[in-house]
From TrEMBL:
The chain crosses the membrane at residues 54-72, 84-101, 143-165, 171-190, 227-245, 270-290, 302-323, 330-351, 405-422, 429-446. GO terms for molecular function: transmembrane transporter activity. Its main location: membrane. Residues 19-449 form the Major facilitator superfamily (MFS) profile domain. It is found in: Cell membrane. InterPro entries: MFS (IPR011701), MFS_dom (IPR020846), MFS_trans_sf (IPR036259). Keywords: Membrane, Transmembrane, Transmembrane helix. One of its GO terms (cellular component) is plasma membrane. It is a multi-pass membrane protein. This is Predicted arabinose efflux permease, MFS family. The keyword Transmembrane helix applies. Gene3D superfamilies: MFS general substrate transporter like domains, Multidrug resistance protein D.
């Protein structure tokens, strides 16, 4: 059976419409939490007496465990199927949200956010992996665009609903906001999510995962835990140990050679990392400054950053069309636009009077969100096109892990800078960090890459792949 015929048969076997809907529901559930949390941080901080360190853990801890869970979850999904990992991840995410929403101490919220990160990090490789297996080419880009669009809708709803809830009911309801959506998704997933048998039944490479996790922690903890800066000195040794082990490992290594040697995958992962970290950090910096520095209400601050989510949602819906017409250049130029927009935002913060600040920031946020809509799902499609199908979940996990590393470092660093004085200068310094990340993304995007390799045929999701002899 040819590749296109197999894709068609596969689509019928796994009922793509219900499966896609469940994947989009998972995206909405996890991203609604992320978009609404920023508005709740100041109220949570006052209510629980949380210090700057606790706030950094609450914000950055989610990305930390999200990133650590991605690779093992992606590998397990490739090897043993995605259904119960998907369901288990959503369940853990919702239970942790209930814990956070009912917490009486800031450290409990921080622990709950760590658990939520594990849940979200378990779900997301299954979503992107199933898209890799169900779709190809233009259809895959459209599916990823729909995933990004749902995230944009969550970004629109989250800050608005969060602002209203804080003003009327309290910050706890913001942390519980995603629970009803998760509780609806879980039983539907039990009924409709495909029971795949796994495509690549390999060993989990526990030593490789341990070394990768330790290297990731050695980079992330110094930005979230005071007094752990010494861990950065261990990073080169851990990375060297990981490379040596992966070269000698007789099974399927975590650093899959077919992925690592593809410049298109490496460059696309770096672009995703820098852009994602900059986007989350800049939005958080602006929200914290408007609420805590200028004393704006949560709803007022949410309305100021709302255009970013609107622009992202609109352009995510058409990003696949733009990619189809202009190709990789559309991502490159969108990155340039995002960089210019961040620089313009920093200048606005410095020189525009407070009376006009909200409108000026709304304009730059709209442009920045639109640029993100042209970047994220098209870049994901371009990057994952270089991944072999037997490692679809692993490739998606490595891509997202890079994003979460940047998000953890970016949000922790920017939060510390902004909260240091809550003045215009501190916000400008925070935005400068975001601009530097985007400048790096522009540099990487300018480097040429070769064409993506042709994809091989694959085993259907509803029957196990042949075991290697």
């Amino acid at each position: 059976m040819g590749y296109k015929q197999e894709v068609t048969a596969l689509s019928h076997k796994v009922a793509p419409a219900p499966t896609t809907a469940l994947c989009l529901a998972a995206a909405f559930t996890t991203l609604l939490d992320q978009s609404s949390l920023n508005t709740a941080v100041p109220a949570l901080r006052d209510s629980l007496g949380a210090g700057a360190g606790s706030v950094q853990w609450i914000i950055a801890g989610y990305s930390l465990t999200f990133g650590l869970a991605l690779v093992p979850a992606g590998r397990l999904g490739d090897a043993h199927g995605r259904k119960w990992l998907f369901i288990g991840g959503i369940t853990l995410f919702c239970l942790a949200a209930i814990l956070a929403g009912t917490a009486q101490e800031a450290w409990v919220v921080a622990v709950a956010r760590l658990l939520q990160g594990v849940g979200a990090g378990t779900v997301n490789p299954q979503v992107l992996g199933i898209f890799q297996e169900m779709f190809t080419g233009r259809e895959r880009t459209r599916a990823l665009g729909a995933y990004a669009l749902v995230g944009g809708i969550a970004g629109v709803i989250g800050p608005l609903v969060g602002g209203v809830l804080i003003d009327t009911a309290g910050w706890r309801y913001v942390l519980l906001l995603n629970v009803p959506f998760g509780l609806i998704t879980i039983p539907l997933a039990i009924r409709y999510f495909p029971q795949s048998a796994g495509i690549n039944r390999t060993t989990l490479d526990l030593p490789g995962l341990t070394l990768l996790g330790a290297a990731t922690l050695s980079v992330l903890l110094p930005f979230t835990v005071p007094g752990t800066g010494w861990l950065l000195a261990t990073t080169p040794a851990l990375i060297a140990g990981l490379i040596i082990w992966e070269r000698r490992y007789r099974g399927t290594p975590i650093l899959l050679p077919a992925l690592i040697r593809e410049r298109g995958f490496r460059n696309g992962t770096l672009i995703a990392m820098f852009q994602f970290g900059s986007s989350l950090a800049s939005s958080l910096a602006i929200t914290l400054y408007l609420q805590e520095g200028l004393g704006w209400s949560p709803l007022h601050a949410a309305l100021t950053v709302l255009p970013s989510a609107l622009g992202f949602a609109v352009f995510s819906a058409v990003g696949w069309r733009i990619l189809g017409r202009y190709g990789r250049r559309s991502v490159q130029w969108a990155l340039v636009v995002a960089f210019v927009t961040i620089v313009a935002t920093a200048l606005i913060v410095q020189f525009v009077p407070e009376a006009h600040l909200g409108l000026a920031l709304a304009v730059t946020q709209l442009v920045n969100g639109a640029a993100g809509g042209v970047i994220i799902s098209p870049n994901q499609a371009l990057t994952l096109a270089y991944a072999p199908l037997e490692a679809a979940g692993l490739a998606a996990a490595l891509l997202q892990q890079a994003q979460r590393v940047a998000a953890t470092i970016g949000t922790a660093a920017v939060t510390g800078v902004v909260l240091a004085s809550l003045g215009r200068d501190s916000l400008t310094y925070g935005l400068a960090i975001c601009a530097a990340m985007l400048a790096a993304a522009v540099f990487v995007a300018a480097r040429p890459v070769g064409p993506a390799p042709a994809l091989p045929a694959r085993a259907p999701l509803d029957r196990p792949a042949a075991r290697p002899r």
